Amino acid sequence: MGRGKAAAQAAHASVDAVLSIVKSKREDWVRWLDEWVGGGQMKVVLRVDSEKELLEIYENALKLGLPASIIRDAGRTQLPPGTLTAVAVGPAPEDLVDRVTGHLKLY
C-alpha cells in the first residue's frame, strides 16, 4: 500500500482506538486516554512483515488488557476488501505498549 494509504489506515486505527476507549467507560482506559491527551498525544508508527504478524500484535494487546483497534480495508482503492491494514495499541502506559510492540521497527 502507498504511503498516503498507510497514513489513512493508521489514522483510522488511532481514531477507532480512542472511540473504543470512550465507549468502554473503563476507568483505567479513560485515565490512560486523559494522560495521553494531556501529554501531547504521542503516536509511533511501526511496521510488520505480514497480516499474520499484524493480527498477533492485536491479539497480544487484547491479552494484556490494552485498548486496541484493528482495521480492515473497505477495498475501494488499492487493496482487496477485508485486507488487514493497521492496528492501534493504546493509549496505555508505555511499558505495557512496549511489551506488545517493542520489537517492531519504525515505518
Describe the structure.
The structure is a single chain. By secondary structure, the protein is α+β, with helices and mostly antiparallel strands. The chain has one domain: Bit1 (3-Layer(aba) Sandwich), CATH 3.40.1490.10. Helix content is 51%, strand content 14%. The chain has four helices and four strands; from the N terminus they run H-H-E-H-E-E-H-E. It has helices spanning 3-24, 27-38, 51-63, 94-101, and strands at 46-47, 68-72, 84-89, 105-106. The chain has a two-stranded antiparallel sheet with strand order 1-4. Strands 2-3 form a two-stranded antiparallel sheet. The radius of gyration is 14 Å and the shape is globular. It starts with a helix and ends with a strand. The model has no long low-confidence stretch (mean pLDDT 96).
The total strand number stands at 4
The biggest sheet, with number of strands, parallel, antiparallel or mixed sense and barrel status, is: 2 strands, antiparallel
Q: Give the C-level CATH assignment.
A: Alpha Beta
The SSE order reads HHEHEEHE
Can you tell me the residue ranges where pLDDT is under 50 for at least 5 consecutive residues? none
Estimated radius of gyration: 14 Å
Task: Determine the N-to-C terminus distance.
Answer: 12 Å
Quickly give the structural class.
alpha+beta
Strand order of the largest sheet: 1-4
Return the CATH topology: Bit1
So what's the overall shape?
Answer: globular
Q: What is the CATH superfamily?
A: Bit1
Count of alpha and pi helical runs? 4
Instruction: Report the helical percentage.
Output: 40-55%
CATH architectural designation: 3-Layer(aba) Sandwich
Give the overall pLDDT as a whole number. 96
**What percent of residues are in strands?**
5-15%
What is the count of distinct domains?
A: 1
